[in-house]
């Protein structure tokens, strides 16, 4: 096909025949990294994962860019009026959206192509298949992509890498039906104490068990004549190519003499605890706007938790999330779109602490990827935050908001950590070193740290400790900032101060109850707001940093105790983690509590 043909499309939406036997449904626009109908000239890749189809001498081809998650079709060696389009299915090919991007060859041309369409829809938890179809004195289609799910290995694997059972078995007329998973998050089912004709299969869902179109009766296998057991082959539960993480599975079976079946509970397999929490957290990420709707600073802290996990494990499968979040959120947004405040570009807003959270996220992104644009953004944000360092009130500290109404622990702790981090990653720097020294000295002398070694929320108008609530994240930010200035200077006094803050938290009774990190809103019938849901994971991130700096067995044991507690008492079979790490009610669970739990599990790993 000529380059001119690749740049010009003639879209004629006319009714044409389709392969018989399959219903056709109307299409809605899907947006992932881009929205449907992107021009193929903008594709990052052009691959051909299925064989071309010959149709009466015409060449029908499916083009795929996994980097974009999109596909398009082309027809060549044709004549005027020949056409090409895409079919897209959300139920494994049982039904499809037809005629997507239908284009007909105009006069004097020999070929044409469709626009690009998303293959799959992770934002709405639908896994799609797509194929190219053409009409040239008859209709034909290529094969679908991608009917098999592939992670470390692909659907259909027979040899497991280990064997655990994440949920209890179910029984049916004396048969026992079990769900098994292995170290690669592959799943299979077995039936025991059965007889000839009994059946075992898996269901796989990408929306946490709400539906399983396209994943029903996977590997359906009968018990052989003379046998009493049966098993399916293994199926993947993560689809990194389609940007689906943490698919849910269950094992189901049927006794030969009855029509009804029985299934285990749904489970979301993962090879490690932290990976399980990360997969469940990525379920809530919306790739088109590139954040976790709809909390601005929480999304920054959540991205940092994902990056910490990735950096700790060496896992690169989430690097696209980092890049996507950066590109989609560094611009300008009106009030109400990302935050109640307007976002003015480069993550700046009137909420100074919100900007600083994003600064720490980009420091973590730089450490993980080495991409200099992340360090550049962190430095830009640090410079913005520094504008609100004001020695004219209380001798220093950073204002919490642009209106300069409050000097508090969170903004001051963020600034200290961010300033020292920028210094350590900027060769030849002296400016940020001096700023971080000044910030650390002021922080310790500010009065925000009370006699018990705990950090109260902030200062009064006359620069005294306001006695407001001690929160775990304020304690953690103090630890993190002091550890980073110690790394920058080598001065033991900073590390000693970090230890004092940590010991007050893990050894006292205010923030630790019965050995478990506990927020004041975790107690009794209290409930935590959307901000407070995320505090404990932030503390654990910085306690782990201190443990690494000091090689402290006590801090590592404490981290392990938190991970053990939340895994045993605060997690469901889909690895969703709640607010109360010791369990109990009322217990909230959403992506914020999930990010907090991931922070604890990463700290212990």
TrEMBL record:
The keyword Hydrolase applies. Keywords: Hydrolase, Signal. It comes from the Bacteria. Residues 1-20 form the signal peptide. GO terms for molecular function: hydrolase activity. InterPro entries: 6-hairpin_glycosidase_sf, Glyco_hydro_76, MUG_Protein. It holds the Pfam family Glyco_hydro_76. GO terms for biological process: carbohydrate metabolic process. This is Glycosyl hydrolase.
